[in-house]
Amino acid sequence: MALPWWRRGAIYQIYPRSFADADGDGIGDLRGIAAHLDHLEALGVEAVWLSPFYRSPMKDFGYDVADYTDVDPVFGTLADFDALVAEAHARGIRVIVDVVPNHSSDQHPWFVESRASRGNPKRDWYVWRDGREGGTEPPNGWRSAFPAVERAWSYNEATEQWWLHSFLPEQPDLNWDNPEVEAAIHDVLRFWLDRGVDGFRIDVTQKIAKDPAMRDDVPGEPARSEDWQPTIHERLRRLRAVADAYEGERILVGEVYLLDLERVVAYVNGGDELHLAHNFVFLQLDWDAAAFRASIDRWDELSSEAAWPAWFLSNHDHPRVASRFDEGTGLGEARARAVLLMLYALRGTPFVFQGEELGLPDAEIPDDRIVDVDGRDPERAPIPWAPPSDAGPGAGFTTGEPWLPITAEAERLNVAAQEADPASTLHLTRALARLRAAEPALQDGAQRTYDAGPDVLAWTRGDAFIALVNFAAESRPATLPGGGEVALSSDPKREVGPVGDTITLAPGEGLVLRRSC
């Protein structure tokens, strides 16, 4: 039986504002993405995931949606979107779009009506409550996910009630206890499915079910503002049914931002909710071989046969690997290359954030260029497509002024320069994709970690492959059960060929070997 497409290879995240700008306004757009489909095809990605491009006031750069069924003019038009989907599909690349079901913009017509009066028909589409202490204090102690915002409630003087916002005050939470809201979001999914999308990444999935009694959180217990067990899984099953009603495999990927792996795995164990759940326990691990091994093994222990992992170590909300794991060693780029090898060689679906295939570090953002309330600008800096010395300060991303500064490493790490360098991170990523595509054992083969020596993460894939990553800042020996032959290394200095029952890994090196027996 053929492996489902979403298990075969990588899913590549595009942050549209920062991928490629076709019209010179300094902000990436849909036509910019379409112009660079050759890059994505050469990477061998199974699908692209597009962060929000919907109409929005951009208080949270698109995660505050004012119209779920239209494209914001800064990104283009619905015709541009349709053309992008058609061109991607023609190249065998599927398209996943972000859906933001927990909250809308305060400029969405639903909320404009909801806040108009207590008697408005849309009032119960959002979460409104009377305050405590005579109405002067918020209904409970829930906090915004953005520390700078502090409390998760804001007061509406006209109607003398508080509205809930898990993020910015301009992002009011929808009331999923109202069946009309759930039905409206289902219709949003159908709108995009009818346009040919292959699935959805569901923003803050765990937030669509909250304690309806709005009780305060209890220290040491799961937050009552999310993952409300009596309702979350049924709501996800109904979302899954919407996707399953369409021909072809249309998938649901959940941002399940829970730091309890058992609860995360519950979202995929039944096989009738999410297809994939982003694993933030894995994302937040320190750079430590034992910690990674324990986390990988724990996922396997908790998983049913229906469950399938989604591996990632960076996205638009978190620092880039080359910066985060450098730790003053100067090994950031080497470790970023090793992480790519790890993601492609683990059993599960690799998610690659744009720019990770180039080994980009976080950009330096001067104080006067900061735009994000939660400090996420460095990882969102635009992609350098060409050397600034040739293409100007926009580095091929734009002919205008980039909305955020481009990395200072653009001259060296741009796409054109790496295209010309067979030892580059770009060529490594392509090689990893080719190797995985050619070898069923690296797609669906059984996985088992083993002890290869201090500071080394090691695992087997079926009887065919061994993978290793050196987490130390120095060289480390590693044992190889039965020996093998080097298939691919993240270190361009590594010579391919047969090895015995031990091998010495360079600092920050990742390695895939074909087993001898």
Kindly describe this structure.
The chain is an alpha/beta fold. Among the domains are: 105-175, Oligo-1,6-glucosidase, Domain 2 (Oligo-1,6-glucosidase, domain 2, Alpha-Beta Complex); 362-413, no CATH class; 446-515, Sandwich (Immunoglobulin-like), CATH 2.60.40.1180. Helix content is 27%, strand content 17%. The chain contains 17 helices and 21 strands. It has helices at 5-8, 30-35, 37-42, 78-90, 109-114, 179-194, 229-244, 261-265, 280-283, 289-302, 321-324, 332-345, 388-391, 410-413, 415-419, 425-438, 441-444; strands spanning 11-14, 47-50, 54-55, 67-71, 94-99, 128-129, 153-156, 161-164, 199-202, 251-254, 276-277, 310-311, 349-353, 447-450, 456-461, 465-470, 476-479, 484-489, 498-499, 502-505, 510-515. An eight-stranded parallel β-sheet has the order 11-10-9-5-2-1-13-12. It has a six-stranded antiparallel β-sheet with strand order 14-15-16-21-18-19. Strand 9 (199-202), helix 7 (229-244) and strand 10 (251-254) form a beta-alpha-beta unit.
Please provide a brief summary of the model.
By secondary structure, the chain is an alpha/beta fold. The longest helix has 16 residues, at 179-194. Helix 7 (229-244) links the parallel strand 9 and strand 10.
Low-confidence stretches: none
Globular, elongated, flat, extended or rod-shaped: what is the shape? globular
Q: Using the 3D structure, state the CATH architecture of the domain at 105-175.
A: Alpha-Beta Complex
CATH superfamily of the domain at 105-175: Oligo-1,6-glucosidase, Domain 2
Terminal-residue CA separation? 26 Å
Assign the CATH topology of the domain at 105-175.
Oligo-1,6-glucosidase, domain 2
Overall pLDDT: 97
Q: For the CA atoms, what is the radius of gyration?
A: 23 Å
Helix residue percentage: 25-40%
